[in-house]
Every structure is written in C-alpha cells, then in structure tokens.
Write a structure and sequence with these properties.
Helix content: 25-40%
Low-confidence stretches: 359-371
GO molecular function, one term: ligase activity
Strand content: 25-35%
Domain BPL/LPL catalytic: 34-226
CATH topology of the largest domain: BirA Bifunctional Protein, domain 2
Radius of gyration: 22 Å
Shape: globular
Organism: Thiohalorhabdus denitrificans
Keywords: Ligase
CATH class of the largest domain: Alpha Beta
Largest sheet: 8 strands, mixed
CATH superfamily of the largest domain: Bira Bifunctional Protein, Domain 2
Strand order of the largest sheet: 7-8-9-10-6-2-1-11
Structural class: alpha+beta
Order of helices and strands: EHEEHHEEEHEEEEHHHHEHHEEEEHEHEH
Number of helices: 13
Mean pLDDT: 89
Protein name: Lipoate-protein ligase A
CATH architecture of the largest domain: 2-Layer Sandwich
Length: 371
C-alpha cells in the first residue's frame, strides 16, 4: 500500500438533514483551506428531502406531505435532482483535490467515481453499472444517484445507495407525479428503481458489510488506501456556525422567485443532455422588456454562483437582446458545465417567452368566440 495515497475513512453515522448538510459544507471548506485530508465519508439520514443547489423547493417537494409525515426539507451544496433520504438509504461522499485523478473534467471524474461505486456494489453480488450522466443502475433500474460540487481546487462528489425503500412515502414527498398517487402509478415509478435488498432476493444485509464492500471498491478502483479516522478539531469548530446557517429558512428556500410586481410571469422547462433547466421570466410585454429571470433545475455548474451572475446579466434587458446577452455572458465567464451548453439556458427562456404569443392567440380566439 506504500505506493497508494492514504485517505481518511470517515463514518458520521445517522444524523438529521441539516447537520449532514452542514458537515458537507464544513468538510469541503476545510479541505480547500488545507485543514482536511482527502476523505471517503459514509453517512445516513433521518427522513428528509434534499433539493439540489439550483432547484426550488416549491417545484420539487410536496411540503404539506413532508410536514404531516415528519420529513425534513433541506438544500444540498451540490447540484443535481431532488433526493428522498431515510435510514434505509446509505450516503457516500468523496472529498479530494481535483488533480488527484489526473483530470479536472467533471464528466471524467463522474464516470470514474461512479464506476468505482459500482465495483463496490458488485462485491456485494449486485450487478451494478454506471449510466451517464450520473446514475448507477442494475438491469436498467436506478440503485444510486450521484452529484458533485467544487470549492476552488477541492471537490465533493457524493452518491446514495438504496439498501431498501418505502416507495409510497418517497413518492408522496417528491413532485415526480400527481400529489395523490394510485397504487398502479406507485408500481410504475417503482419499476424504475431497485434496492440492494431486492436485487439480493430479499436477503437482509448488515450496514458494515455494505460499507466495507463499497470502501474496498473505491480503494481498488481509485488506487487509494483508506485509514479510519474522525472529525478533526478544525472541522468540529466550524460545525455550530455552519449548522445555524443551514437551518435558516433563507437557505432552504434560496431560489424562491423574486417579486414580479406588475410584470407578467411565464415559465418553461427545457430538457437537455445536462438535465432540466427551468426558467421563470418576468416580462413587460408592452415594452418588450425582460425584468428578471430565475433559473432552476437539476444541472451541475461550477462555480455555483454562475446561475446568479447569469440572472443578473439578464435583468432589465430588451427581449431583442436576449441571445446576444447570453452569448456575451458565457464568452466572458469561466464556467464548467456537465453536459450542459449556454444554448440550454437560452432555449429555456425562449420557450417561456413563446407563451406570451400563445396567450395573445388564446385571448383573441376567446374574444371571437364570445362575439
């Protein structure tokens, strides 16, 4: 093992959503500052829904259902889609320098790490494989989703493993389908997912066995040596203040749309190779002006503030200058995007603006019919 770099193996156990999200921020920040080593972390959650950094809670979560069933709602520091977590699921995270594996390209890192996680599951007897852009599947059914974020040269890349699942509660919390699901709808959606327990024919499996095999898969495929460790004093010292910030409702509802005042608001969702891009556009049609745009979705970008900077660049903008403004923004910005293109943001806004004309057509048709 002497020729392999040593990483810390950290198991933070079962915690609430806010504390786990605060630890994500602490570990990434501490790694960037040089206070934390490269780390593989295992974690578990009390029941919760975690929206991706660029998503809106109102678009992704049935908040009344969550409140009724004691399911916490939190926001991740990483991009990607919404995740339901409970004690039946295992989380894993890697913290490392982006040069550790000879590439800083997020797509290449994602593929390599996902293949390592799949190798760990294969050691359990689960025939798991990487499916671009960021899933791990068994015979076409998802068993693990992944995502990542940068802080300078430091990276956190994280994933989940469905050991078992309570589908009815999971689907009741997420806006993946109508609020009231039939048994048939639950069955149909459930057929897209699978769990370790199901794949192993209902066999109960110990948590330590899952973690040991995953750790071995990461170590072998990534060429590292894992040494068990604990949180250090710097990390523990940062946790209370970070936890207070994460528990704040302003963090959870970070992407609530800005007030549109007297403007008309149109929305559209664009599905592309890099994920879903949603645009809520406040406009003054009579003046041909875009007042502001709010983007959300399950995409991955670095730096994360790029979305806010793009929104600022499109504020109080003549509609006729939209394409020029988007192209100019990306031309002068240093941005990394996973399978996402500048045109995807432009398309989402244009698809929303098209609705202005459709609305005019419907109004005219209604007037003719009433006449």
């Amino acid at each position: 093992m002497a020729d392999r770099p040593t990483w810390r193996l950290l198991d933070t156990g079962l915690r609430g959503a806010a504390e786990n999200m605060a630890l994500d921020q602490v570990l990434l920040e501490s790694h960037q500052e040089g206070h934390s080593p490269n780390t593989l972390r295992f974690l578990r959650f009390e029941p919760c829904v975690l929206v991706g950094y660029h998503q809106k809670v109102a678009h992704e979560v049935w908040e009344d259902f969550c409140a009724e069933h004691g399911i916490a709602v939190q926001r991740r520091i990483t991009g990607g889609g919404t995740i339901y977590f409970d004690p039946l699921h295992l989380g894993w995270e890697l913290y490392f320098d982006r040069a550790s594996f000879g590439t800083g390209d997020m797509a290449e890192l994602s593929a390599r790490i996902c293949r390592a996680a799949a190798a760990g599951l294969q050691r359990l007897g689960v025939d798991a494989h990487f499916r671009p852009r960021n899933d791990i599947e068994v015979n076409g059914r998802k068993i693990s989703g992944t995502g990542g974020a940068f802080d300078g040269s430091s990276v956190v890349f994280q994933g989940t493993v469905l050991i078992d699942a309570e589908l009815e509660k999971m689907l009741g919390a997420l806006r993946v389908a109508p609020e009231k699901l039939s048994k048939r709808q639950i069955k149909d959606i459930g057929e897209r997912l699978t769990t370790v327990k199901e794949v192993l024919g209902g066999r109960e499996i110990a948590w330590d066995e899952v973690k040991r095999n995953l750790a071995d898969g990461f170590a072998e495929e990534l060429g590292i040596h894992l040494e068990p460790g604990e949180l250090n004093t710097v990390e523990e010292g940062k946790l209370p203040e970070t936890l207070a910030e994460i528990e704040d409702e302003e963090w959870v509802h970070l992407h609530a749309p800005a007030s549109a005042e007297d403007a008309t608001v149109v929305e559209a969702t664009h599905r592309c190779e890099g994920g879903l891009v949603r645009a809520a556009v406040a406009v003054e049609p009579d003046r041909g002006m875009i007042k502001h745009v709010t983007f959300s979705g399950d995409f991955f970008v670095n730096p994360k503030r790029m979305v806010f900077d793009l929104e600022a660049a499109l504020r109080n903008l003549p509609m006729a200058r939209l394409e020029e403004a988007v192209q100019d923004f990306f031309r002068r910005s240093e941005v990394e995007m996973l399978l996402l293109r500048p045109e995807d943001f432009l398309t989402a806004v244009n698809d929303a603006l098209v609705q202005l004309g459709e609305g005019d057509s419907r109004d005219s048709a209604d007037e003719e019919a009433s006449g």
